[in-house]
Design brief:
Elements lengths: L38 E5 L7 H11 L6 E5 L2 H11 L6 E2 L9 E4 L15 H19 L5 E4 L4 H6 L7 H9 L5 E7 L5 E6 L6 H7 L2 H17 L6 E5 L14 H15 L3 E6 L1 H9 L5 E4 L2 H12 L4 E5 L5 E4 L16 H15 L5
Parallel strand pairs: 1-2, 1-5, 2-4, 3-4, 5-12, 7-10, 8-9, 8-10
Antiparallel strand pairs: 6-7, 6-11, 11-12
Helix pairs in contact: 1-11, 3-5, 7-8
Amino acid sequence: MKEAGSGPGAESGPPNPPGQLDPEAQIRRPSPIPPHTGWVGITLGDPTGIGPEITLKALARLNSAGLRFLVIGDYGLLQQLNARLGLELQLEAFRSFAESGPIAVLDTGPQPLPSSLSPGSAPAAQAAMHWLEEGARLSLEGRLDALVTAPVNKAAIIRSGTPFVGQTEFFAEQAGMRDPVMMLLGEDDRGRWLRVALATTHVPIREVATRVTTSAVARAIEMAAKAVRKLGLGHARVGVCGLNPHAGEEGKLGTEDLEIIQPAVASARRLGFDAQGPIAADALFHQAYQGQYDAVVAMYHDQGLGPLKMVAFERGINWTLGLPFIRTSPDHGTAYGIAGTGQANPSSMLAALQLARQLAAAPREW
């Protein structure tokens, strides 16, 4: 993936206390073409998972020339982990966007997190949600060029008393938009990419057929094609999966492919998008992996993520399409089983940061 950095921004005015933002600051929606600030935000995720570890390891490996990073999380936790991992990162408490960097920690918690939290505990889940909210606020204010979010645990958040479907849906709600589109992308060890956009997101299988609508599929095709162009590819060939086995066998194995997906593809083609389908998913993913398509639109979560994770389990990236700001994340969970052991692989987080940097450096289009 070709990458480019962007220059640092500046902000005037007196600094706030270390590690704090102005509590009276109001959310400001970004302008149609927000200016570059030089800041990439990172929310720390569940502090009892591997989010803190992969964040620090990825920052240690990243060529961060021209950028500053605002890590939104617990400062004390990060200081201790930085020392334990021997990374020697120069972390500092956030003072202001004009004065801080290159790696500043914005700790907005009322008190430091205890070091003895059990995996998935309510305080950990609540802290993760608080950091997501802060990241969304700063992104919507236009203070960040991009936001990268470390893993959270959905079940832990729900147990803590907060209704939660997923980070994609959370950011869409915060931005006041409907029907977010998830794109998952990654490359294998030979540099071969898969890019997969989903027509539905976190939906139970029994509800998928009713959620796959012509408008949802058409939107996923459009967002996938535009995403590929933002990545700098010279073309944007989109293959569209069928919903049913063998793409419905001309209606013999279900009518959704003929009645819903085929009209969506036709509509996208009338708008000038190079879309083909519906195509049986087992054939389409092989064709895309061989380079015949630049992106695939899958109808539901596991139809798309299964092939993607076979290709790029350790380097997969989640990119939320259609938001008024850039948001990426590693494509894995909290991995409680290895949290705190120093074994976490930061490759997916590093790839998410690299993509965020690349997108932040490109001309703004929203």
